[in-house]
């Protein structure tokens, strides 16, 4: 964070890049679901009283990553199309589903310098959808992908 006068200026959320299997995806415009994990809670009653203790289940759950990207005819379109087609294989007797997994990284940058990295592991495409088509609109055509994964952590 840069020191501006007497305060530390906060990072902005607008400079980042998604990397899947070592390939940067510059068409990604939004990533949500950056959760480092959550424990389930077990409620344990205390016998003979009205008190309930809350304890951790020790099972960690991770929020899905939602990736929003512009459709622009670039190599990114092919990268995500290939991954989707390999996962869903609609012409096959049995789609691959969660068997087609990729590792990746989300780099948060500030003035071009990487300041924070999130690594995600064993991600697979849960869903893919596109912007509604509407005559006369000024909207960009976007794809929204939901990725399930087995972990997200901050890394050096």
Sheet-strand content, in percent, reads over 45%
Provide the gyration radius in Å: 20 Å
Shape: globular
Order of helices and strands: EEEEEEEEHEEEE
Portion in helices: under 10%
- pLDDT below 50 for ≥5 consecutive residues: which ranges? none
Looking at CATH, which topology would you report? Elongation Factor Tu (Ef-tu), domain 3
CATH top level label: Mainly Beta
**Number of individual domains:** 1
| Helix-and-strand structural type | mainly beta
Structure commentary:
- The protein is mostly beta strands.
- It has a single domain (3-155), classed as Elongation Factor Tu (Ef-tu), domain 3 (Beta Barrel).
- Strand 1 and strand 2 form a beta hairpin.
- The longest helix has 14 residues, at 75-88.
- The mean pLDDT is 91.
- The protein is built from one helix and twelve strands; from the N terminus they run ββββββββαββββ.
- It is 9% helix and 51% strand.
- The chain is globular, with a radius of gyration of 20 Å.
- The strands form three sheets. Strands 3, 4, 5, 8, 9, 10, 11 and 12 form an eight-stranded antiparallel sheet that branches. Strands 1-2 form a two-stranded antiparallel ribbon.
What descriptive keywords fit this protein?
156 residues, mainly beta, Elongation Factor Tu (Ef-tu), domain 3, 1 helix, 51% strand
Strand and helix map with partners:
Elements: E1 3-4, E2 7-8, E3 16-20, E4 23-25, E5 28-32, E6 38-45, E7 52-61, E8 65-70, H1 75-88, E9 102-110, E10 113-130, E11 142-148, E12 152-155
Antiparallel strand pairs: 1-2, 3-4, 3-9, 5-8, 6-7, 8-11, 9-10, 10-11, 10-12
């Amino acid at each position: 964070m840069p020191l501006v006068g007497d305060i530390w200026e906060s990072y902005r959320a607008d400079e980042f890049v998604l990397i899947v299997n070592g390939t940067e995806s510059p068409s990604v415009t939004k990533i949500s679901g950056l959760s480092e994990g959550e424990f389930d809670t077990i409620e344990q009653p205390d016998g003979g009283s009205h008190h309930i203790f809350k304890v951790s289940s020790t099972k960690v759950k991770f929020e899905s990553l939602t990736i929003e990207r512009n459709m622009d005819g670039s190599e990114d379109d092919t990268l995500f199309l290939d991954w989707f087609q390999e996962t869903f294989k609609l012409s096959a007797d049995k789609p691959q589903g969660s068997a087609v997994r990729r590792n990746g990284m989300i780099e948060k940058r500030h003035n071009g310098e990487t300041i924070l990295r999130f690594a995600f592991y064993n991600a697979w495409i849960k869903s893919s959808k596109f912007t509604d088509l509407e005559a006369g609109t000024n909207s960009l055509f976007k794809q929204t992908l939901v990725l399930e994964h087995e972990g997200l952590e901050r890394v050096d």
